[in-house]
Amino acid sequence: MKAFGKVHKYGDNVDTDVIIPARYLNSADPKELAAHCMEDIDKEFVNKVSDGDIMVANLNFGCGSSREHAPIAIKASGISCVIASTFARIFYRNAINIGLPILECDDAAKSIDAGDEVEIDFDTGVITNKTKNQTYQAQPFPEFMKGIINAGGLLNSLKK
User: Fold this and answer.
1) pLDDT tens across 11-30, in order?
2) What's the CA gap between 71 and 31, in Å, rounded?
């Protein structure tokens, strides 16, 4: 399983209220959530993002509330993976549960810049910055997590 895309870069402590503002939580429709993804931190995100793009952030990505709306909004926007130095624990699990691949890799998070083109090999955990010709090693997913992500989320994986 691989991903390739252009990077959208953010800093530390990107909380779930910034990922999807609370004023839009009256909808569970992924497309509606995606239409407002990141708008309080990056008003142009929805106009810039393309299917397959990659989000990169620093420390404590996804902190705040435990709502699943945040990873759903990111995934529905077209982001194929989020790379961060660290993730809030509940966001990490929610992301896996809805089938959004996320990788912790401090070196990659610090070195990759907005606009860089990045390739990810989820089987090996290798992140390659094609723009800078640099590679980083993240922890590859265990087999059970790969199964959940490949199925598009936990509920889908239970149907198989």
Assistant:
1) 999 999 999 999 999 988 99
2) 12
